[in-house]
Specification:
With 213 residues, this protein is an alpha/beta fold. 41% of the residues lie in helices and 16% in strands. Helix 2 packs parallel to helix 3 and helix 4 packs parallel to helix 5.
Length: 213
């Protein structure tokens, strides 16, 4: 049975969110992440030529030869969702509740991590697909996430926005399944590999490892 994205994220712990200047740069960054031990990467619609970048990176594998999960974030419209999936995206992510995107995901049986900030928004997203993105996460902080986890113990919860790499352990301790990081990841190959090295040492999967949509 193929791995499910949620289990991959739970093991990976950090989800890179790439906002690059063009498709070529997005492809270079994605390739470097895969070579460093990362398996799931989120490109974004804010990158010019993002669909072409998805097409070029979707067939790639990680350093261990496993198929990569290339997703598209900042998806807020039907057109963006359709284009992303047509380009080969493995999952979609929105920054806030997006019914249009949810409808496309349901119709095409795609994984959709819907964004939200209030408990109601996050619970609705989690009920719909088992996962939710908390954005902007830095506003509420790890304490807010801890409160959410108390009432959504089984959900895949991915806080994103304003989180620095050094703060990831605190968010994981508060109950994050994985943490979205939009900037601050090292460019040096050895340092980047060190970010994902703990994956092999976790020995288990944290909160929210549902494998069903």
């Amino acid at each position: 049975m193929p791995d499910h994205l949620y289990a991959v994220l739970a093991a990976q712990r950090v989800l890179p969110v790439l906002r690059d200047t063009d498709a070529d740069e997005a492809v270079r960054h994605t390739t470097a992440l895969l070579a460093a031990g990362c398996r799931a990467v989120e490109l974004t619609t804010s990158t010019p030529g993002w669909a072409a970048a998805v097409t070029r990176t979707a067939p790639l594998s990680d350093v261990h030869g496993r198929p990569a999960f290339i997703g598209v974030g900042t998806v807020t419209t039907t057109a963006q969702a359709e284009t992303a999936l047509d380009a080969g995206a493995a999952f979609l992510v929105s920054p806030y509740p997006a019914r249009e995107v949810r409808a496309v995901a349901v119709r095409r049986e795609a994984v959709f991590i819907e964004g939200g900030f209030t408990p109601g928004e996050i619970a609705t997203a989690a009920r719909a697909a088992g996962a939710a993105k908390v954005f902007p996460a830095h506003v509420g902080g790890p304490g807010f996430l801890r409160s959410l986890r108390a009432v959504l113990p089984e959900a895949v919860i991915i806080p994103t926005g304003g989180i620095r790499p050094a703060e990831v352990p605190e968010w994981l301790a508060a109950g994050a399944t994985a943490v979205g990081i939009g900037g601050g990841l090292p460019s040096d190959p050895a340092e980047l590999a060190a970010v994902f090295a703990p994956v092999a040492a976790t020995g288990g999967v944290p909160h929210g490892t549902a494998t069903e949509r």
